[in-house]
Design goal:
mainly alpha, 82% helix
């Protein structure tokens, strides 16, 4: 509101001004270069990755491979639940921000609709998991309590993701990074307390994750409320719009799980928790690449969407040229991982986990294909037509499962890594084809001038 008025009329005009401001289209942040945004996200992700990475040599010395495998299975189960708690509608809230003519009141009520979807989907998921808790606990190698607790943790992660994405689309990278880094710091401190000081082993590491995510869900809700991004939704049409975005992505999320996480289930089932823990150490090392790619992509999305909205052919050619350069760089990084990855795993994780180095090169190459996938999938999300994306991801996921069953017995965790690499390459190529169908780009005439 403006300064206090001395008359009722002035107060009435101030109320009208406030309502008009709330109803206005959300203010877009001033343009910022891709390099500037990417550097902030990259620094944030490096710090965010450095914290658990610094924790790795501690955990590998206080946890046996089997205990580390238990932690890995809890994290993998969380990834599986992400397809069902919230039904992936957090992306709809981020995409809504770019709709032409959309006002501030509409956006915050739409976010409210997304949280309503989260509440109902989480309740349904919890009931199903509760009924199957004994079977799931046996399959995962986890206590039934952890199997159930993961549902709430997954829902809390959804709320945190909504807050982070609303900062991302507004290019508030510092706020994004502060929340992200603070969360990792708390996980580290609690892990050190519970695992190293209190010697609670795998239980301590899992509890540190649970408590931290629940605490940061409250923090995320506070900042959403503080920035006036929360309002009660009173229209079914908003829920329907959110579901129209998210539901077609459920097979995509499930397929992504089959591509990037189901290997841990198969390794656990076929080789045991100790080998699952070994494999997870290699996965964590290769995930450093994914964090870098994710940082670049977070800065890249607003930059890309602005150019897609302008629809200038010369700018699209520039985007394609940058993309091809990016592909070359990430493949070079993956090649280096084959050479130096095993040495770093033994150095950091210790001799007990040295066999994880056998899988690191293939996992790094798979992560490189994941980074390339990011660059093409954005066009599909921009188009809002995500159905074929799910088909391509499910296809790659099923191929991964088939390859795992073939390769894991003769080659162990190296076979699992090879299956992951092939599946990630297939997902990238299929998604690229879908992206071109949904939003054509000058992939083959990027050097021509009109």
């Amino acid at each position: 509101m403006n300064a206090k008025s001395s008359t009722a009329q002035a107060g009435y005009e101030a109320d009208i001004a406030e309502q008009t401001q709330e109803a206005a289209e959300p203010a877009r942040p001033p343009p910022k270069s891709l390099a500037t945004g990417s550097s902030i996200y990259l620094l944030s992700n490096i710090l965010n990755a450095a914290i658990p990475f610094a924790l790795l040599p501690v955990l590998t010395r206080y946890l046996t491979p089997a205990e580390y495998g238990e932690v890995a299975m809890f994290q993998t189960w969380l990834a599986a639940l992400g397809a069902f708690t919230g039904l992936s509608v957090h992306g709809a809230a981020a995409r809504k921000y770019y709709d032409t003519g959309m006002d501030g009141q509409e956006l915050k009520r739409f976010i409210g609709a997304c949280l309503q979807v989260l509440a109902f989907s989480t309740l349904f998921t919890f009931l199903v998991v509760f009924l199957l808790r004994a079977q799931l606990a046996t399959w995962l190698g986890l206590k039934p309590a952890w199997v159930l607790a993961a549902v709430g943790v997954s829902a809390a992660s959804f709320v945190i993701q909504v807050r982070l994405e609303q900062w991302q689309i507004r290019r508030q990278a510092i706020s994004y990074g502060m929340l992200q880094i603070s969360q990792s710091l708390l996980v580290m401190l609690l892990s050190l307390l519970l695992v190293v000081v209190l010697l609670w082993a795998a239980q301590g590491r899992i509890l540190a994750h649970i408590w931290t995510v629940l605490a940061f869900m409250v923090i995320a809700l506070y900042f959403l409320h503080k920035d006036k991004l929360l309002a009660f939704n009173d229209k079914w049409s908003r829920i329907r719009e959110a579901l129209a975005f998210g539901v077609p992505l459920i097979p995509h999320v499930a397929g992504s799980f089959l591509v990037s996480a189901v290997d841990r289930f198969v390794v656990n089932a076929e080789l045991g928790l100790a080998q699952a823990g070994m494999y997870m150490v290699a996965v964590q090392f290769s995930s450093v690449m994914l964090l870098v790619f994710d940082a670049i992509n977070k800065a890249y999305i607003p930059w890309l969407y602005e150019r897609l909205q302008r629809n200038v052919h010369a700018e699209k050619q520039q985007v394609v040229r940058y993309t091809y350069l990016y592909f070359a760089v990430v493949l070079f990084i993956a090649a280096l991982a084959f050479l130096v990855g095993p040495y770093f795993i033994t150095l950091i994780a210790g001799e007990r986990f040295s066999s994880a180095g056998d899988a690191i090169g293939w996992l790094a190459l798979g992560q490189a294909f994941g980074g390339m996938y990011y660059m093409v999938t954005n066009y599909i999300f921009y188009s809002k037509r995500t159905g074929l994306l799910s088909l391509s991801t499910i296809t790659a996921g099923l191929v991964n499962v088939a390859l795992l069953l073939v390769l894991i017995k003769p080659f162990g965790i190296v076979g699992a890594a090879q299956a992951f690499c092939i599946a990630m390459a297939m997902r990238f190529l299929l998604t690229w084809a879908v992206a071109q169908r949904r939003h054509p780009m000058p992939w083959f005439d990027f050097m021509k001038t009109r």
